[in-house]
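[job 0412] stage=fold_complex status=start
inputs:
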Amino acid sequence: MESIVEILSQYSDKFNKDLETYFPRCEGIQYRAFDAMRYSITNGGKRLRPFLLTKSSELFGVDYKSSLGASIALELIHSYSLVHDDLPCMDNDDFRRGKPTCHKQYDEATAVLAGDGLLTYAFEILSNSCIEDKKKIKLISLLSKLAGAREGMIAGQVLDLFTESNIYIDKKEEIIRQTQALKTGCLLKYPCICGCILGDGSKKEEETLTKYADNIGLAFQITDDILDVIGDEKIVGKTLKKDEKQNKLNFVSIYGVEKAQKQALRLIEEAIEVIDYFGTNSCEFKLLAKYILDRKY
Amino acid sequence: MESIVEILSQYSDKFNKDLETYFPRCEGIQYRAFDAMRYSITNGGKRLRPFLLTKSSELFGVDYKSSLGASIALELIHSYSLVHDDLPCMDNDDFRRGKPTCHKQYDEATAVLAGDGLLTYAFEILSNSCIEDKKKIKLISLLSKLAGAREGMIAGQVLDLFTESNIYIDKKEEIIRQTQALKTGCLLKYPCICGCILGDGSKKEEETLTKYADNIGLAFQITDDILDVIGDEKIVGKTLKKDEKQNKLNFVSIYGVEKAQKQALRLIEEAIEVIDYFGTNSCEFKLLAKYILDRKY
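[job 0412] stage=fold_complex status=done
writing structure:
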C-alpha cells in the first residue's frame, strides 16, 4: 500500500500541472503582479486543501476534473492569505517553504497586489468552472463567507494579530481555539463541505466531514505550534520560534510540548473514528489525519 | 428639472442607507477588520459606480432593488482598491475625502485585512443577491476579470506604480491611456455592462454603453489629473500635486492643463452623442457626463 506521503506527492504533481495552466507567462510590466502570483502559488505547498476537496468529492462520485475549479480557487485563497500574512506589517516573514516570501522576491506593493490578484482570480476561476450554476453559487457564497472578515479567515488573522497576550489564563484556551477555528479551520472545513455540495451529500455526511475537518484543523495548528518550538528550520522552511520571541499565545505556550502532543493525538484519533462512517472510502482520510500528526514540516 | 448634483446626492443617500445594512456593528476584537471596512466604505464616496449600475439596469427595466446586490458588490471592490492604494507601500496617502485613510485611522495590518475583507465580502454579497443564477455567475465572472491582475484594475495599479517616467515621449500617451483604461476604466465599464446582463440587452446596446463608459472613464481620469494640479485641497479632500512631486506620468504632465481640458471636453461630447442612442432614457447619463467634466472634487 502506498504511504500518504506518496499519495500526496502524486496528487500535488498532478494538481501543480493543472494549476500552471492557469498561470501562463505574459510579457510586459503590467503583469508584474500576475508574475508574483505565479511565484507565490508555485511555491511548493503541500496542497492539503485541494487534496481534501478532491477526496471529499470522490466520496460522492464526483471526480478530480469536475471539482478542479473549486480546488484551484481554494488553493489561490490559501496562497493569497500567506502572501499578505508574510508582509512586514503583519507577520514580517522573509522565508516561506525555504524561498524568499513574495515581498522579499518582489516588493511590498507587488505583494499586496499579488495577494489581491490571487483572491480575485479565485472567484474568476470558480465562476468559470464546469460546475452547475446552482452549486457554483453555493460554493462561491460559502468560500467568501469562510474566507471573510466576519465569520472567516480574516477574522482569525485579526485575532492572531491583535489578541493581547496578558489576558486571563482561563480565557486563553478559548481565544486560541477561536483564532485557530477561524484562521486555519475555515479553509480546511471548506473543502470537506465542497464534496457534499458537489455530490449532493446528506446533512449527516456533511456533519461527519465537518467534524473530521474541525479535528484535523485543530490538530494541524497544534502540530504547527509544536514544530515552531522543536522543529528543524531547514526542514520546516521558515523562521521558527517566532511566537516565543513575540510572546504570542499558542497551544504550546499554554500547555507545553508534551500536553499539546497528547491533545493533538486525541483529536486525530477522534477524527479517524468519525470518518470511519464512510467505511472503506475513508482510508485516505485516515492516513491524512495520521500524517498531520507526524509531519515534520 | 433637478441638477445632477441633486440626483446623485439623492441616489447616494438611498444607497448609503442600504449599504449600512450590510455592515452591522459587532462587538469583539475579531471584528477590527470588519470595523475598518465599515469606516472605509462609509467614507462619503460619490457612489458614481453604483449609480451607473442602477441607471444602466433601469434602461432595461431592471429596478434599483433587483440590481442592488451588484451595486453594493461593485462599490466594495472600488473601496478595497482605495484602501490598498492608500497604503504606505503604494501611494502612501494620509487623507481620503478629508478623513484619515484606513491605515492612519487603524493601522497598516488592519488596512490590508480590511481591503481583503471588502474584496471577499463583495463576492459574498453578489453570490447571495436576488439575481437569477445564470446572470449572477456572469456578473461574478466579469467583475473578477475586470478587477483582476491580468486584464483588470490590478494590472492598472501595477502600471501606475511601475511605469518608469523616462520612457520615450511617443510611448507616453499609449501607456497613460492603458493605465487609465485598466485602473479606473474597468470598474466604470463594469456597471454599464451589468445593466445589459441583468436586463438582457442586445450586443449593440452593450457596445453603446461600453463606449460611453470608456469615454467618461478617460475624461474622469483627465479631470482627476487636472484637479491634482489646479484643484483646491480642501474641496478635493486629499493631498494634491502628488504626481508632480513624484514625477509621475499623467495627462497634464504630457499635454498641459489647457490641452487636457480640451481633450476631456471632446471625450464628454462624444459620450453624450453615443448615449443619445437610448433617446429620452439617456438624460441622466448625459448629465452625469457633463458633471464629470465640471466636478470640483
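[job 0412] summary: Residues 219 and 266 of chain A are 9 Å apart (CA to CA).
[job 0412] exit 0
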